[in-house]
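User: Okay, second chain of the day. Same drill as before: sequence in, structure tokens out.
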Amino acid sequence: MRNIKLVLSYDGTDFSGWQIQPDAVTIQGILASAIGRVTAENVLPQGSGRTDSGVHALAQVASFTTESPIPAGNLLKALNAILPASVRVLEAAEVDPEFHPRKSARAKTYRYRLYRADLCPPFLARYVWHHPYPLQEPAMQQAALKILGEHDFTSFAAVDPERGSDDHPACNVRTILASNWHHDGDEFVYEIRGSGFLHHMVRNLVGTFVLVGKGTLNPSDILKILDARNRSSAGPTAPASGLYLVGVDY
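Assistant: Same drill. Structure tokens below.
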């Protein structure tokens, strides 16, 4: 058996997230179908994480095992010929049998794009959160720095019984290596790099930072929210359209 690693980029707008679901179009589902057509095998590719419905990826990592002798370079070309234009395989390579895109990951980077101009171009609307209203941007940057280091992020995790967050709060401890806002033209962009992320964690952080920008919260409140370990203490979930999985480190 060969272990094939793929690096994928996709526009998540029209997909119900990564994870395969009955009666829903997902990235994992269409990728599995494409691999099956190319190799004539029934495989389920594993990803580095489960991006939510509407979330995009610049470099999602996946892998699958196969007995097919097709060279990795030819697999890349064949998969891109089958996959929709909104999903591209950027890289394909044979890797060590022990490699697993999630278990082997050391860190991930996400980006969130907040569009600040009065009018959002129609061709950008699917890829940003349009928020033209006044925000105290320096306060948002101060708030972002508060989460650096190791913390329990239960307050920023979606309530998801399947993941056992409520029963095992220690499972919600993550280490954040970078957390910053910066300007890029008309966009105010948030970038975060960490050891791992909980369900909706980045979107919940962004929604909370926007409350800081509005003056509803102070930057110092972020630490109180972390200590509360209660989802209701944090802000709303930011729209999926502005979120991107930028890359995974191994």
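The helical segments are 27-39, 72-82, 137-145, 201-214, 221-228.

User: Thanks, on to the next one.
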